[in-house]
Design a protein that fits this description.
The chain is mainly alpha-helical. The chain has a single domain (8-127), classed as Serine Threonine Protein Phosphatase 5, Tetratricopeptide repeat. The protein is built from eight helices and no strands. It starts with 6 loop residues before the first helix and ends with a helix. The model has no long low-confidence stretch (mean pLDDT 95).
């Protein structure tokens, strides 16, 4: 049985996911320092890192990685933060994630498949380390 959260805790969690989506790196980093789990996931399995990567917020991605966010985690659809960054054509985020140990083969579709499917040669080159 899933743990039930009270309204205040649920509102706080929603606000943390909003910070990941909108790039609230400083406030999110402060919450991480005070114990917010870096791998917190929403009801779709999206981590804070996946949301920050998808919404093109490299400083937020960097803050999450610095606080232990797992770059290999995938959401309920098998998508990784790296594949999200590739899809959004964000070279800075791709480099941050690769530097933190994300693998182009993580997830399904993975980052390499995403670059090929959407014909993103610049992203494919980054994934190959070029």
């Amino acid at each position: 049985m899933a743990e039930e959260w009270d309204a205040e805790t649920l509102a706080f969690a929603h606000r943390m996911f909003d910070l990941a989506r909108t790039g609230g790196a400083e406030e999110l980093a402060g919450q991480l320092t005070h114990g917010l789990p870096a791998n917190l996931t929403n009801d779709k399995g999206d981590t804070l890192l996946i949301l920050a990567a998808y919404h093109n917020h490299p400083p937020t991605v960097a803050a999450l990685l610095a606080h232990g966010a797992d770059p290999a985690r995938v959401n309920d659809r098998g998508q990784s933060a790296l594949a999200a960054a590739v899809f959004r054509k964000n070279a800075e985020t791709v480099k941050l994630l690769l530097g933190a140990g994300a693998k182009p083969s993580d997830g399904s579709p993975n980052a390499t498949e995403t670059a090929a499917f959407f014909d993103l040669p610049e992203m494919a080159a980054l994934l190959r380390g070029e």
